[in-house]
Design brief:
- The protein is α+β, with helices and mostly antiparallel strands.
- About 35% of the residues lie in helices and about 30% in strands.
- The chain contains four helices and ten strands; from the N terminus they run βββαβαβββββαβα.
- Strands 1-2-4-3 form a four-stranded mixed beta sheet, with helices on one face. A four-stranded mixed beta sheet has the order 5-6-10-7, covered by helices on one side. A two-stranded antiparallel ribbon has the order 8-9.
- Strand 1 and strand 2 form a beta hairpin.
- The two termini are about 25 Å apart.
Amino acid sequence: MDGTLTPRRAEIARATSETRIRATLDLDGSGASEIATGIGFLDHMLTALARHGMLDLTVEAQGDLHIDFHHTTEDVGIVLGQAVRKALGEKRGIRRYGHAVVPMDEALVEAAIDISGRPFLAWDVTFARDKIGEMDTELFEEFFRAFATNAGITLHVMQKAGSNAHHIAEAAFKALARALRAAVEPDPRAGVAIPSTKGVLEA
């Protein structure tokens, strides 16, 4: 190793009988995004994820929205998780852990990440209504679980306060963004070392 990190970018395409999704990701971006999932509120959340995570992100999805939004939401989470995992490679030189507490008016949501290679989601977020716009609020947990599982990360998301469903969801995505930004950030003291006493960050 020469002490430098390679570009941390990925492109993932996934096609099933239910969805067709293509995404590109640059972990060291400027927060630019082009998002088109066919689900307006999900587009809004992914735009916030890119901006606050300082990710350059494109997502283009076509799904069976005439049935419901479940398959598209979950599969976008799968693809984004796979993109993060691929972009991180061996995970050399990263801080590994990230934590953020984000307020959105009356809502407050905390997210903590360990880029551990051990997929796990702890979700403690509740919504007082079933939908935000046309999107079922139960789908946010599905997205976060698909993302964490396919990224190979341990992710805790905890609602500390809040009553407005829009504010709670937005605070959750922004907390994820800020925690992820911290966890993938290069650690200048680590060089290209893998941040684990095992020498690898895999399950």
